[in-house]
Amino acid sequence: MILQGHRLRLRPWREADADAFAAMNADPEVMRHFAAPLTRAQSDAFLAALMAHEARYGFCFWAVERPAEPAPIGLCGLMRVSFEARFTPAVEIGWRLARAHWRRGYAEEAARLALGAGFGPLGLGEIVAFTVPANEPSWRLMQKLGMRADGRFEHPRLPRNHPLRAHLLYRLARADWLAQQAGNGPSCHRNRDELGP
Predict the structure, then answer these.
(1) Where does residue 156 rank: exposed (0-12), middle (13-18), buried (19+ CB within 10 A)?
(2) CA dist., res. 60 & res. 52, Å (int)
(3) Residue 119 pLDDT more than 90?
(4) Residue 179 CB: number of other CB atoms within 10 A?
């Protein structure tokens, strides 16, 4: 699946993307709301997992590219949640951009493309998103996308005393997304605070 937007394209990953992907994942600023930056081996394993997920399900956190850029500038897309929680089984939307491409509205454009694929050809009934409370740019974008807050949960992949264990949960039902497309949903205007890793 390839999703074409006004300025961006979401596409499957290629092995040639590994260097740019690893550089983004190793940036401490990009990864500050995650447990830690990824080593090259961890990044390569993550890339392989994304490619395997798409081969199995037809979607993943796709590569985000700009026509003028020689390599992907980030990731955005859909993944099946791989842990058990009160809201699983579920499909999540996620995004991550290289720092040089923050605050340009790319995360919103990419996320809207991913939601359109999820609720359109993929036929999903609901899409969730989650992040830590400190990641205000991401949860503000979730709100801008029309997602509804559904409290907090403790991320089971992190130790009980980990500072990033508490997560905010957002949800978007297909019916609400369709209402947005009909002109009854939240504004699509961008602001400078919408983007983050």
Answers:
(1) exposed
(2) 9
(3) yes
(4) 13
How far, rounded to the nearest angstrom, does the alpha carbon of residue 96 sit from its chain's CA centroid? Answer: 6
DSSP conformation class of 15:
G
Domain count, the chain: 1
User: Could you tell me if residue 174 is inside a domain?
Assistant: yes
In this structure, how many other beta carbons lie within 10 angstroms of the beta carbon of residue 27?
17
Cα distances (angstroms) measured from residue 51 to each of 9, 17, 55: 17, 12, 6
pTM: 0.90
Helix, strand or coil, per DSSP, at residue 44: helix
- Average pLDDT rounded to a whole number, residues 68-89: 95
Under 8 Å between Cβ of 167 and 142: no
For residue 191, being part of any structural domain is answered with no
Q: What is the CATH number of the domain that holds 32?
A: 3.40.630.30
Instruction: Give the range of the structural domain holding residue 138, as residue numbers without chain letter.
Output: 3-184
